[in-house]
Design a protein that fits this description.
By secondary structure, the chain is α/β, with parallel strands linked by helices. It has 8 helices and 15 strands.
Length: about 375
């Protein structure tokens, strides 16, 4: 920080005055008054130079402060998304998912622990910020600015149009539902807070999108994200029966492998299940192992991962189709896709924020579509 100009000048003047008095007395005593006059002129010049230099430095500092302010303001012009979308390399990779963030210390811990896993893709599952604006969450998630594909939750959509527009602008989205491909995985992002019935634009989009993905020889996995859970043990929020009854049969038909959702602030993961027409709230379990599923014949695994940092919702029992559940633990689900020939494997691992301990793990294995025959 540059010192105050007046204070600095005062100090310089004091030192120069002492020097002037001492030198003037010496000069006068030897009757060299002409030299004393010359010294006074030199002192005036020195003071003038000091004033100019200090003024220039002060102006430079103001310019730097203005630049800092500009940089801070520029950071609010968020441009987030997923820079590697469309990458078709058949390489192993991982992505992470969690929902119900908020902006607490627990949220920061979740994000920091996600960073440790070095994910290539990050899937926030809704209820990102519970504040009146999206700013706090957008700042916290900044380390993943080019790895994000967000799902919209209640607080993201229902807390005012200005907040919703913040997200839309930050992620360059015009709709709340969309899809993308990455390394032989097709991802669909649903909006359970938009129109969803069989005549809606969202339904038509998802139906066509799933059909295309299922027929694509280069797509081995289909992963869907949403907000309101299709299936859940008794907790703060019930299952979204009306949405489930429309979309689960569609997911079965086109071979969806994994559905990730939030809303309930706990963790729940089903066995592989298929839709039960006779009793839609009681799906058919196709494999009762806790882990080790065959993707080509077993049903869909549904997971509620509302554990990113915003409070806890107690579990008041356990549904028979739930393979693993717990409350009171913040953390995230890490999904690894490993590729071989002729098989590919999806491994899901839930990491608790406390010491990174593993609270759940499951695998799904299947044959790749476009396999190379020996």
């Amino acid at each position: 920080m540059v010192p105050d100009i007046s204070r600095t000048i005062a100090i310089v003047v004091a030192f120069l005055a002492i020097a002037f008095v001492f030198t003037s007395g010496l000069i006068i005593s030897i009757e060299h008054t002409a030299q004393a006059s010359s010294l006074r002129k030199d002192i005036d010049k020195i003071l003038k130079d000091v004033k100019k230099k200090l003024k220039d430095k002060n102006n430079d500092e103001k310019d730097d402060d203005e630049k800092d302010d500009d940089e801070k303001e520029a950071k609010t012009n968020y441009e987030y998304g997923f820079s590697d979308e469309g990458d078709t390399k058949r390489e192993d990779f991982n992505f992470v998912a969690a929902g119900d963030y908020g902006c607490s210390k627990n949220t920061k811990n979740t994000i920091n622990n996600m960073k440790d896993k070095k994910p290539e893709l990050v899937l926030p599952l809704g209820d990102l910020s519970v504040d009146n604006t999206a700013t706090c969450w957008l700042d916290l998630i900044a380390p993943f600015d080019n790895k994000l594909q967000i799902t919209f939750g209640y607080h993201d959509v229902k807390n005012g149009e200005s907040k919703l527009n913040q997200y839309k602008e930050a992620f360059d989205l015009d709709k709340l539902y969309y899809s993308f491909n990455y390394r032989h995985v097709h991802f669909i992002v649903m909006s359970t807070l938009s129109e969803f019935d069989a005549t809606s634009d969202q339904y038509k989009f998802i139906e066509k999108d799933l059909k295309d993905a299922s027929e694509n020889e280069n797509i081995d996995w289909i992963v869907v994200t949403g907000y309101g859970p299709f299936y859940t043990s008794p907790s703060a929020h019930p299952a979204k029966n009306d949405i489930r009854n429309i979309y689960h049969p569609l997911f079965d038909r086109y071979g969806v492998d994994l559905v990730l959702q939030g809303h309930n602030h706990n963790y729940q993961r089903t066995f592989p299940i298929t839709f039960n027409v006779g009793k839609t709230s009681d799906p058919t379990v196709t494999n009762t192992f806790v882990t080790g599923y065959e993707g080509n014949k077993d049903g869909i695994v549904y997971a509620v991962v509302g554990t990113a940092g915003e409070g806890f919702h107690p579990l008041e029992g356990q549904q028979p189709y739930i393979a693993k559940q717990f409350e009171g633990k913040f953390g995230f689900l890490d999904i690894e896709i490993s590729n071989g020939n002729p098989h590919t494997k999806l491994t899901g691992t839930f990491y608790d924020n406390i010491e990174g301990s593993i609270q759940d793990s499951f695998t799904i294995e299947k044959e790749i579509k476009n396999k190379i025959l020996g």
